[in-house]
Amino acid sequence: MSPHFSRGAVAAAVSLACLSPAWAQSESATLKEVTVTGNPLGTADAVVPTARLEGDALTLRRQGTLGQTLDGLPGVGSTYFGPNASRPVIRGLDGDRIRVLQNSGAMLDASSLSFDHAVPSDPLTVERIEVLRGPGALLYGGSAVGGVVNLIDNRIPRAPQFDAKGGITGAAEAGLSTGNKGRDGALLLEGGNDRYALHVDLSKRRTEDVSVPIDLPCSKPGSAEQARRICNSASDTESGSVGGSLFFDHGYLGASVTDYRSDYGTVAEDEVTIGMRSRRYALAGEWRQLPGWFSSIKLQAAHTRYRHTEFEGDEAGTRFRNQGNDLRLEARHRPIGPLEGVVGLQLDSNRFAAEGEEAFAPASRTRQQALFVYEELPTGWGKWTLGGRVERVRVRSDGSTDPDVTRFETGERSFTPLSLAGGALVRLSPAWQFTANLAHSARAPRDYELFANGPHLATAAWETGDASLRKEKSNSVDLGLAWQEGPHKAALNIYASRFSNYIGLVDTGNTRSAEGELNPTDGDEALADLRYAGVRARFYGAEANGTLRLLGAGGLGRADQIGTLDFLWRADLVRATNLDSGEPLPRIAPARLGGTLSWARGPWGAQLGVDLVRAQRRVPAEGQRATDGYALWNAALSYRVPLGSSELLWFARVDNITDELAYSAVSVLTTTAFPKAPLPGRSARLGVRLNF
After folding, report:
1. How far apart are CA 128 and CA 102, in angstroms?
2. pLDDT in the model for residue 554
3. Whole-number CA gyration radius for the chain
């Protein structure tokens, strides 16, 4: 059994310098870190809580999915539908309350529709990931009430990297993993001069079934009936992109085409695999030093074609298609006295369709138009911020594309969500700063929340929407305190959100057959009968993290003799309650505590860390399994080799060193498919990255 937090375990963890995975060194404790997401003016001091991963920290932390890569950052978890489909969870909120962006533009897929649908992006090709926690993300829509995850790459170059003579740069990475017998690699090339730039990247990842600490059954043809592997968890993923930009005296204009393909097992069913395909055409530009009211204008536009097919063995089953466009214009106005800010327009539209026996949502069309504004007022002690966004959202159900399927309601709903946010940053001293944020957020219901009516095997339920749903509304407060003195730093955020109409799945107490028969009596396995409904809900919690220099510059001893030794720590806690029933909301992460000892000297780096995750007994009476606590130990080693103007980085890491058996309290599989999908067991990864 996995342990609870015992005093001995906590003492041992603290004495060995524990944090989230050992390579999580780039987090939100720095006071002068410039984060693009949620800060359109590019100022150094962020009022809203942010975190970012880039460089070596991202290279060492990368996993096969976005959710697993970010899991362990303060306040951030993972939906973990096995090792191939995992979306971020922020402060207990998931799905359409978390906006996943690509270079600040919309990313169109079906990952928020169902837990088994992966995000069509490979972390191998991402240069930086920024995470904005909390409702300060209203610039990106009411659907970002929980936060924003922004995947930033250079597929459309935004600034010249070379002089008039031109040049070429790039990076190549390759890795091997033991736990899933994984092989992966990526190549990036960029060239040009001061007037144009071209970008090309390719990536490939292939894995087999993931190793775990216990024997699990498997009925998939060609697989062992019992093995220490998660059945049907293999994957084969590849992506590629071509992009380029033209630069002029006061801006740029560029475009890119990105193709992503992934074939992977769904884990919940031994013989069901998903074949995913996504193609994205993007356009971006910026015009600076303009005359008149606005000093600069940014343009982003994209067209995405997404589809995936669920195969039962070799036979094609349910098919999902999503096609859409998005356009975002952002204009920075000239200062009005000390006041600086941006105003913007965002247009989104998409067509969704599902075909097959297990299609639980109808063909639909969603259109959204939005106006937003963000303003900053600097003061002698810090600054004020104020933002607002108004949207017009139309959601239309066209029923099923199969004329024999008549269970879906048709019709159209319109909504006008309004979101407002205000914040303040106070510099208490050169080392201390205080932040406060207040927000009112509104989100229009999604198409499936309004019109779903069918079997959803990812949740082992028959899901039914409610076409009369109102907007989801919440009021939130976030208070933060941050300190930095030399290499030492710490940050604390506490927050609370109250929803007057939190849209979630409510268990009716009935069951349905796969054909929709209510409370079947023929003995077949029945699905839980769940309905989308609005309830009153409350979320609150805290996040803390920091760095303490133990040895070297800023600590004891001389850095040139012993290097530097840092103790990085973090902790977070979230509580969520359905105020109508008095019960906890489902799939909420338990309290987490962690730390890392991080040593560096010359070309060498080494880390040892642990994550302590408390048992989660605070679950609804029906619909979720309680989970035990666990401790996951991790280690990493890196060595940097200069090669003229290039650089080679060798790295190795070991995840779950003790091969601990653990189940995620946030994963729906822990309840619906127990014990099929524990967290991965011990795995070693060896990799090399060349920057030239």
Report:
1. 11
2. 65
3. 25
Contact assessment for residue 458 and residue 80, using Cβ atoms and an 8 Å cutoff: no
7-274+288-691: in CATH 3.30.450.180: no
Which neighbouring-strand residues pair with 299? 285, 329
Q: Are 479 and 494 in contact (CB under 8 A)?
A: yes
Contact (CB, 8 A) for 239 and 253: no
**For tokens 């076409």, what's the residue?**
467
Contacts for 62 with CB less than 8 Å, ≥ 6 apart = 69, 123, 124
Q: Please report which helix (H) or strand (E) contains residue 260, including its range.
A: strand 251-265
What pTM, to 2 d.p., does this model score?
0.91
Q: What is the pLDDT of residues 275-302, one digit of tens each?
A: 999 999 999 999 999 999 999 999 999 9
Encode pLDDT of 565-590 as tens digits: 999 999 999 999 999 999 999 999 99
> Starting from the edge strand earliest in sequence, which strands make up the sheet with 98-102, in order?
50-54, 128-133, 147-152, 98-102, 105-106
Q: What is the DSSP string of 161-173?
A: -S-TT-EEEEEEE
> Kind and range of the H or E element at 495?
strand 488-512
Instruction: Identify the DSSP state of 445.
Output: P
CB contact set of 655 (below 8 Å; sequence gap of 6+)? 21, 179, 632, 634, 680, 682, 683, 684, 685
What type of residue sits at position 532? Y
Extract the residue ranges of the chain whose pLDDT is less than 70. Answer: 1-36, 38, 44, 135-137, 142, 523-524, 554-560
Report how far residue 2's alpha carbon sits from residue 665's, in angstroms, rounded to the nearest whole number. Answer: 13
Count of Cβ atoms closer than 10 Å to residue 449 Cβ: 25
pLDDT value at residue 317: 85
Q: Which residues pair with 491 in a beta bridge?
A: 482, 545
- Give the DSSP letter string of 240-256: EEEEEEEEETTEEEEEE
Q: Using CA of residue 211, residue 213, residue 219, residue 221, what is the dihedral sign?
A: positive
The answer to whether 195 and 641 have CB atoms below 8 angstroms apart is no
In angstroms, how far is the first alpha carbon of the chain from the final one? 48
How much is the pLDDT for 141?
75
Contact 531, 525 (CB under 8 A): no
The full set of domain ranges for the chain reads: 7-274+288-691
For the purposes of burial, counting CB atoms within 10 Å of the CB of 429, is it exposed (0-12), middle (13-18) or buried (19 or more)?
exposed
Strand ranges for 289-403 from DSSP E: 294-312, 315-336, 339-355, 363-378, 382-399
Could you tell me what percent of the chain has a pLDDT over 90? 72
As a whole number of angstroms, the distance between CA 221 and CA 142 comes to 45
DSSP tag of 93: B
Taking a C-beta distance cutoff of 8 angstroms, is the pair 184, 205 a contact?
Answer: yes
